[in-house]
Amino acid sequence: MAAARTPLETVAAAAEGALRALEGGFAAISVWEREAGRLRVLVNAGELAAGEERFPGDEWYPVHDFPEIAEFLHEEWVGGQPRAWVDTAADTGPTAHRRRAAALRERGRGCCVVAPLVLHGRAWGELYVARPAGAPVFDATDVDFATVLAAVTAAGVAQTERLEEVRRLAFTDPLTGLANRRAVDVRLEEAVERHQAEGVVVSLVVCDLNGLKHVNDTLGHAVGDRLLERFGSLLSLCGARLPGALAARLGGDEFCLLAVGPAADEVVQVASELCRRAGELELGEGVACGVASTGDPIGAVRSARRLFRLADAAQYRAKGARAAEPVVAGRAGGVEDPVVRMADRPPVPVAAERRIFRGREA
Predict the structure, then answer these.
(1) Alpha-carbon gap, residue 225 to 215, rounded angstroms
(2) Are the C-beta atoms of residues 153 and 227 closer than 8 Å to each other?
(3) Which of 186, 208, 212 is nearest to 284 (CA)?
(4) Which residues, in sequence order, are bridge partners of residue 88?
(5) Which of 188, 278, 296, 353 is the least buried, fewest Cβ under 10 Å from its Cβ?
(6) Which of 156, 169, 167, 165 shows the shortest CA–CA distance to 5?
């Protein structure tokens, strides 16, 4: 790994090394793309099954099929290296495990050991090594060895990633690992251009995390950051149900989800799930969600700014009503919807805004 010249060469060396060390028939390394809510395969090594490629161009799996990667970090990994685990083709456990067991059988493999890769205290991806059907099942010693190999791999990846840190930080929120406001602005401009040229549906979900200030004031900012990270993971998991969606933290307690292609109803369903799951978090007071989609009767969307203002106005209405469900622009009267009218009204001059705010204070 130390001799590798590119990030892809680094993970390829790690996969080949793990394949030999664990006496497997196949190995792969995947990265958790948080903003897209998916595990994307970077490299496959060893005996490839039908449809598998050495360096796949577009092989990925929704992260909600692998909840250990997303959830264990927050519940069990704090303060230590996460342990690997074994799945077998005969697994009859929870739904996610049965799905992985079926994938093993489909590819002629009997068992696999999966070791999470952790960088800077956050799940980065996974190391996966499988043996063919009929070969000995990985045992406890193999699990311990895979855990160590994952730590070595993560160290090598970290060294390579330093070379790309400047580029990554330019478009990534450092606390949650999601995309940042700059990334949203760029992607939203491109999406609206596609909408105008091709008619593709563009939807934006804007979220405001309720109760963060209270958590910071009563439990401290470290706990508040923990809440932001937990919600960021939820946003990534829910967003994974919308192919190609971008999950982002806009700043402070504001997040968003940008979807290009899925129907408006699909986006609203995901936003509803996000509201429900956010309300079940052990901290905070749920989330206020606003949705704006070109698939709804909101009038012409000729700029990214208008779609953002519509989603933000819907979120503002949801927060004021303490709504448990998302507020969707245009669904309470089309262009006469109070949310749409609020978004389209002329901006209030700063001086006037201050007078209004002082009047409310009085």
Answers:
(1) 9
(2) no
(3) 212
(4) 111
(5) 353
(6) 156
DSSP H or E segment with residue 290: strand 287-293
Q: Mean pLDDT in the chain?
A: 86
Which residue do the tokens 């996974």 mark? 126
Pairs from 103-108 (Cβ < 8 Å, separation ≥ 24): 104/130, 105/133, 106/49, 107/26, 107/49, 107/52, 108/49, 108/132, 108/133
Q: Is 83 exposed, middle or buried (0-12, 13-18, 19+ CB in 10 A)?
A: middle
In 11-121, the DSSP E strands lie at: 26-33, 38-46, 60-62, 85-88, 109-119
Tokens of 84: 């690997």
Rounded mean pLDDT, 281-288: 87
For 167-189, the pLDDT digits (tens) are 667 788 889 989 999 999 999 99
In 3D, which of 236, 352, 243, 254 has the Cα closest to residue 308?
A: 254
pTM of the model: 0.56
Q: Are strands 38-46 and 254-260 parallel, antiparallel or unpaired?
A: unpaired
Determine contact, residues 278/231, Cβ cutoff 8 Å.
yes
Could you give the CA distance from residue 235 to residue 47 in angstroms, rounded to a whole number? Answer: 36
What b-and-e string marks burial along 291-312, b requiring 16 or more CB atoms within 10 Å of the CB? bbbbbbebbebeebebbbbbbb
Whether 323 has a pLDDT exceeding 80, the answer reads yes
Of 287, 292, 263, give the one whose Cα is nearest residue 273. 287
- Burial code (b: 16+ CB inside 10 Å, e: under 16) for 273-285 equals ebbebbeebebbe
Which residues are registered as beta bridge partners of 46? 26
Q: E strands along 120-251, which residues?
A: 122-132, 202-209, 246-251
Cα–Cα distance measured from residue 134 to residue 104, given in angstroms and rounded to the nearest whole number: 12
pLDDT computed for residue 17 by the predictor:
96
**For tokens 């989800």, what's the residue?**
257
Q: Nearest to residue 145, comparing CAs of 25, 22, 24? A: 22
How far is Cα 319 from Cα 275, in angstroms, rounded to an integer? 12
User: For residue 335, what is the DSSP state?
Assistant: G
Other beta carbons within 10 Å of 354: 11
